[in-house]
Structure formats: C-alpha cells, structure tokens
Amino acid sequence: MNITNIPDERLEELFAPLSYKGFLQSMSYFHGYSWRNIFLIYKQMPHATKLAEYDGWKQFGRKVKRGSKTIKILAPIPQEARTKLIEKIDTETGKAILDENGKRVMEEQIIPVPPKFEEKRVLDISQTYGEPVFRFAGDVLANDFLRDASIDALKKVLGGEFETPRNVLSIIRELSQTMETSALTDDWKTLITESVSFVIGKRFGAEEIAA
User: Is the pLDDT reported for residue 76 higher than 50?
Assistant: First the structure.
C-alpha cells in the first residue's frame, strides 16, 4: 500500500460493517492519531493496541520479536515558517500607513507552508516481549476505584444523577448525543452517536456498549 496516497476506493472499505467496526476499535486505542494513520494501522494490523518505534520499545525494557514486520504510518516533517514584507494598511481607510518620515510602514506576513509527511515505521506491543507496559484501554472499568471516579466525573459533566456504576454506558451515549450535528440527517446523527459511543466504550473497557 502506498501510504502517502490512499485511493478513494480503499477509503470506501471503511463503510463496510465489519471494516468500520474494526476501524473504530483501532480508533479507541489510537485516539491521538489522525484518521489517516488509524486507517493505515487498521489495514496493516487490525489487532494493534499500542505502538512505538524500535528504539522506543527498548526504552520500555522490551525487545522486538525476530521477523516482526513493521507498521507504516505518516509523520509530519517540521518546516520553518516563511515570511515576506508587505505594506501595512490602515483597516479603516484602506490606505498604506506612513511613518513620521512619510515612508510606508512594512510588516511581516507569514506564508502558509503546505504540510509534508514522511514514512515512519512502528511496531505493536504484540510484536515485543519483556517488561510489562501500562495499557489504559480496558483498565478503567475493571478497577473499582477508577470506575467510580470515572462515573463521578461523567456525572458532573452532564449534571445528572445515576443509580449504579453500570450506567456509565448510558452516560457515554448521552454525551455522544450532545454533539452539534444539527446540519446532518438523522441517519448521519445516529451513525456519529453510535460511533462515538463505541469508541469511548471500548476505550473505557465497556464491552457491552461496544458489542
């Protein structure tokens, strides 16, 4: 797969039920990644849960299994901003501003630089062995203290009262429905609500909502 240019027909695969569900599951683990990188991760290793470069796993005290195939993603290339001098214009009159000597005042204008990316190779935790690594997904509701703390925090966000800890699933769904989707059709609203509920549910280890 050419990861710098994903054809439209490949993206259309996401909306097949099984593919879309798998994509959302990958998103629950890699919510900090762009949708494009999540797509790339899902297509290359659907079961991936935690990624790092080869040297990164060494810092975690883990070794990469022999013969492991890397996962390709895109990383932004830092670029220096470009500027140019332009005349400073009075916003009210639309005329050039002059200094005390009658010369036109100049100011720097930033020139937008198109983003550039380079291929980056990473490996999943399943391709390594060694020291245990903290994994957030699935740990929250499995721990009584974290579960209760999470529910209390979600209650405050909604300003509601819920009787049992299991209602965290209802809270997640209600939060999803509060998003601004007025310009969308009902079908799209439902898709977005269910997608967000699924991703957050998986992230918190709430398997019932992600079924």
Answer: yes
Find the mean pLDDT for residues 23-42: 87
How far is Cα 113 from Cα 85, in angstroms, rounded to an integer? 16
Q: What is the dihedral of CA 58, 60, 64, 65, to 10 degrees?
A: 140
Percent of the chain clearing pLDDT 70 (strictly above): 64
Q: Which helix (H) or strand (E) segment is 194 a member of?
A: helix 186-203
For residue 164, the model assigns a pLDDT of 44
User: 169-207: b or e for each residue (b if 16 or more CB lie within 10 Å)?
Assistant: bbbbbbbbeeeebeeeeeeebeeebebbbbbbbbbbbbe
Residue pair 157/165 in contact (Cβ under 8 Å)? The answer is: no
Looking up tokens 């509920």 gives: 197
Classify 119 in phi/psi space as left (phi over 0), alpha (psi -120 to 50) or beta: beta
